[in-house]
Structures are given as C-alpha cells and as structure tokens.
Amino acid sequence: MRLSKLILASALLFCLTTMQAQKYVGGDLSVLLKYEEQSATYLDKDGKAIADVLTFVKEQGWNTIRVRLFDDPSKDTDKNVCQDIEYVKRLGKRIKDAGLYFLLDIHYSDTWADPEHQVFPYSWSIWSWYPDESVYKYTKEWLGSLVSAGATPDFIQTGNEISFGMLWGFNLNGKYEDWDEYGGHLEATADWKDYTNKHWDNFTNMLKAAGRACREECPNAKIIIHTEQCANNPTLDVAFFNRIKQYGIDYDIIGISYYPYFKGPLANLDNGLTELEAHFPDKMIQLVETGYPSKWEVPGTSYNYTSTYPYSHEGQRKYTADLITMLNKHAKVNGLSWWYAEANAKGCTGSLKEGWYNASLFDNETGRALPALYELKNFSSGSSGISHITADKGANDTWYSLDGKNNPSKPTTKGLYINNGQKIIVR
Description:
By secondary structure, the chain is of the alpha/beta class. It contains twelve helices and 16 strands. The strands form four sheets. An eight-stranded parallel beta barrel has the order 1-2-3-4-9-10-11-12. β11, α11 and β12 form a beta-alpha-beta unit. α6 packs parallel to α7.
C-alpha cells in the first residue's frame, strides 16, 4: 500500500512539474497573409525555399503565434493595420491547423493601441455611450466567430500595452477628444511611482467586461493583461497590477513588452521581472513583444546598445541568446514572442516591398531566415509528456496518459490519466 501511494505521489509530482515547465515561444506574425499575397520570398538560412512559414517555424521549435485584431482597420492607412475579424479567422485557423498555440492580441481600436494611442473604434463612437458594454459585446462576438471558424485562441490579450488604460476617447474629424466621463485614460502621479484615481472605475469595468466575454466564449483560454513599463519603470508596473488586483480583475498572465532600443539594457528587464515575481507570485509572466535590429537603427531609437549588440545578424542573434539566458532564470516567465517576425521585403510586389523594419527574423534583401530565429527554440524547456492541458467543448471523451498518448475512451489499464483537464486514477 505504501509503495502504491509513493508511486501515485511521484506520478502526480511528475504531472504537475511538466505542466509548470511548459513554455510558449514564437512570434507575432500578424502580417503574414499580406506578405504571402504580395509574393514575399521566404527562405531558410541555407537559401532553401520555405513552402509554409507556419510549418517552418514549428520545425524550428516555435509553438505559439501571436496575431493582433482591430475593429475596422479600413479606417487607417497603415498597411500593417489590416487584421479585421475575417483576416484573423483565416490566419487563426491556419495556426490551429498547424498544431500551434494561438495568442490573440485585441487592440480595441481601428488602429494601433499603445501607451500613446488608445482611440475608440469609429463604429463605437457613433452609438456607444458605455464602453464596458461595447467591450463585452464585441469581445464576445469576435471570440464566438473565431471559435466557429476553428480558430479558438489559447491566449487572449484584452488590450494592447494598457499601462495608461484603454479606450481613451474619439478621433473626430482629425481631432482627438478625451472622453472624461466614460473613457479609460489613466494618469501617473507626478513622481511616476503610482497612479491618480482618475478613470480607474471606467477602465476596470472595461477589463471586467472583456474578461467575462473571454470566460464565456473561450473558457480554456488564458487571459493576458499587457503593459509595457516593466523594464523602464517597474514601480509603476507593480502599482498597475496592484490596482487591478484591488479591483478584482479576472486574468491569468502578466504580459509585458521590452524593446532594448527604447527601454534600456537587459538588466532593466531582469530587475523588472524580479519585482513582478516578488509581488505577484501567483501569476505567470510572458514577454509578448520584443525585437532587435539586424542591420540599422529602428526609427525613434532612444538607447544605443550597439556596443554590446551591433546592428548585424550576429548582434541580433547574441541579443536573443542573452535575452533567453536571462529569461530562463525567472521561474515565472513562461512566454516569449518576437514582434513583427515575418517582415520580409524580398520578392514583394506590393505595399510591403520597401522593407523599412529590419528587426524582423528574415533578411529584407535576401529573404533568408536569420540566426536569431533559430535561437528562439532555446527558450523552450524541452520537457516531455503532458505539459499543456485544455478541455475543449464536446471533447471530454479523450483520455491522455502521462507520456502524452491519447485514448478515445476511458482506458482499462490502471494508471493516472488526464481527462477534461483533470487528473483521474483508473483502478
């Protein structure tokens, strides 16, 4: 009896350890469909043609793809803002069909949402007076559409870089107007160590509405709250997550952005992660946006890191390797995503052919995959067995053994199994 209990305890420990060890690594490939439409030439490092980018990156150890979603991108002239729900359904289904995890990044805008821009979608400005109701309605509608299309997200960002709130106000006739009564524009205190109380009720009502829709439509997806102050001002980032904890916001993962050319050296990120881990030990953390140039400076660069990481293929690779080494020292960090990884002007016949962005993972001049792309696999733990458990609607008859094998019905062999997200002993 003691031996059987010891075996059972060991099996449970093994199962819990492999679940905790699971890591998610990949990139934001939101413009991939447009690059394919414009005949971009994707090659591996040896110059061999890549038949399918998703299959290729999976072979290089990626397991997660991030895609942004806008309400009506036709209201913006930026060629990279094209991801409406129909576009995301197509790309999301390809991601899921390829056996990859799907991270959905909802911007709640017709254009880029970030710490300097959080503008209401145009259609909302016409009729909606209660943003939280709109957030719930559209989040639920979008997610339901994705589920029906076979593109159920595994992770959902309810907002993009929302350190200073979301849905601030309207852009009417080219003039921005803050919506003080209902908007969610947050303000930092004068010392930038905390926030004023302005708009927190509005903002958190929006997050609650988004979270409710996520739980209803995608109950197995993990909700990510995404900010960008971790590396440059961890005190304010901690204050942010303390506030949403006080308001009872339902979420699973802290998502952060880090671009060294804006936020400073890796030591800044290391320090910020340590602060988040210390204050929020119950939350996992994912670096959902990062990148570094391979040839020239990114426009707007405010921190020159070239003494450590030159703007070259090798400099980019070394940055990636050092970033991963540091991230792997943080037990709570389980996600890494390279932003705009698919940018590639080689062979393009349309609006994307100028290749301004050179912090992607493909060379704009040759179309070849860069060394940093192959480096990303080193973030993954490489653990075997059951490491990710979901319970899809209507899929409760599948049973998994601890080595990852599935059974279409309840096993007859004694042992420990996973069914519907639960550990069950078959005697």
